[in-house]
Amino acid sequence: MAVPESHHPVGPATPNGRRHSNAEWDFPFALPGRWQGRKKIPANTERRQPWVDPDAVDPTRITPRFARARIPLADFVAHVKTIADDAGVVSIDHPALAHERDEIRYVYPHARSLVVLIGEENKPSLQSRYLPTANHELYECEERLFKWDHEVVRYIRTLGGDALTTTIGWPQEVSVRWADKIWPLSHKLVAQAAGLGIIGTSRNFLHRRFGAYCLIDTVLTNLEFEDLEYAEAARPLDWNPCLECNLCVASCPTDAIKADGEFDFFACYNHTYRDSIPGFMDLVRDLSEARPRKFEHRWSDAEIAALWQSMAFRVEYRCFNCIATCPAEIHDAFHHDRAVRAEYVRETLKPLTHVRREADEQFVIDTPSARERLGIPPGAYRTPPDPTRPGQHGTRLVQLQRIRVSNIDTMMRMMPYYFRPEEADGLDFTCQFLLDGPGGGEWVLRVADRRCNVRPGTVGAPDLTVHCDGRVFLGVHRGELSPVWQLLTGGIRLGGQRRLFLAFPRLFPVYPEEGPIRRWIWRLRQSTWRRSPSAGATDPAR
Ligand code: B12
Ligand code: SF4
Ligand code: SF4
Fold this sequence. Notes:
Helices cover 36% and strands 14% of the residues. By secondary structure, it is α+β, with helices and mostly antiparallel strands. The chain folds into 3 domains: 44-243, NADH Oxidase; 248-401, no CATH class; 407-507, Nonspecific Lipid-transfer Protein, Chain A, CATH 3.30.1050. Residues 200-202, 242-248, 326-328 line the site of one iron/sulfur cluster (SF4).
């Protein structure tokens, strides 16, 4: 598979003259997975999102200084492979990294080559149903990578160059960029650009030998090799380790991985990373805002204890299924041998799917349809505890609006991630945002086929126009301003089919209304919903 040229002019990072637009950057490789038919609008994973313009933080450009490598690139890679489980090198000019080049140079102004290191994770640990075992292996693998990074940096120094490591996972620039792209570069893209594997349907990087059982880190160096050497070293893999078996889709407890190529970032994030930033935000806000009785309803002792553990030790991820059920690393045997497949389904897929989907507590984004499906009325936030069974079960609804962006640009770019597809059945419309004031601009939001795209610019005949000060819409988005009041007082002006705006609080969930009247209306609606023939039907798109 050849590395495709970028469909759009590469850099400067503002091809449309707009800062902070990430809509221009296509996914730089063949799209992962078995794309089941094109829909009216592309999946968000067809873009290299997200993207941050470092010029907005500091426009100073430091002229890069490179150090000519004293040895051939092939020898360099061969030596690095004696340090790490696998390794590759790509040039900073590789088209797959074009959207992040400025940001990489923000991290290290003299970056010329990217050395990507692969750490193999122990498969039985990742496949364990006991979560701490998988978590421990993840952190041990990170430790191994840190150590190798340091060895590679020392090796580069012996060659007359300089280098630094980025970050494998944490820490990220949370204090500066929350809630936006807080990581410095995408290791998955570097690893695929280096020809070490391919990003699969799960959106995990599948290494040519280790499959999904690997972590990745990147060392940035000023060492410079010949252009021809880079091309030779980063030959794309000529086969695809992803079997397109969709086991990751089936075993994902949050339905974040969609067979049609979409990925629900917040569904995974709010569950798997519950004991990290989202849970901590919730705890602090609930402590400051919720009455004691409400707090009791929202927080179980086990949830508070889990958060303590994550903060006292390290973040415990609540799910690894898209790694642990992925057969890419036994690609051939799985493909050709029916007995291998049967054993895999029996001993790996089914137990892990059951435990992570059914036995574990689930953290689900609070939407009207989630409440209806789970039977959780307004004022309540979880399914009732079951004292007859050991362990934590059931579902806790979490508020997406608690993950709050801080600026208008991020809000618009992230709207596709706030978007809840299950609330968009039958909707097909285009909305023109005309945002006045500092930081404002024109944006087009398109909803169709349970997908949502946003791009900067204007459209000829939108179905709906939303005209307001960008800061007003940000206030509404953050739950600080009432949309009803803004509509009544002219803070927000609508044009076209105004009723479409009524769908926004469902599509981009806001805090649910509470109180006895709400509860009564909800119960009435639910009894109607239960009687409807389509209630409980499974969604084939999932
Ligand atoms: C952001 C992030 C996440 C996000 C988004 C995941 C994703 N698919 O990108 C969340 C929180 C959901 C996540 C979850 C997990 N992650 Co993670 N994550 C990252 C991180 C920091 C960047 C990912 C990236 O490169 N995205 C860019 C593009 C190319 O990826 P993409 O899939 O095409 O696009 C997604 C993102 O851009 C995201 N997105 C889009 N817009 C926005 C906006 C914002 C604000 C955010 C935050 C995200 C976001 O949604 C897109 C749809 O998938 C990397 C570390 C790093 N610095 O590279 C680790 C990394 C990708 N994660 C990793 C792992 C192991 C996991 C988990 C298995 C968690 C766990 N239990 O260990 C799950 C797997 C989920 C999955 N199926 O992808 C490994 C993957 C190793 C591998 N073999 O592929 C990495 C590489 C860490 C590492 N150093 O090894 N992760
Ligand atoms: S489980 Fe692995 S091999 Fe199968 S579709 Fe998902 S990523 Fe590809
Ligand atoms: S980590 Fe779990 S919840 Fe997140 S995408 Fe993978 S399987 Fe789904």
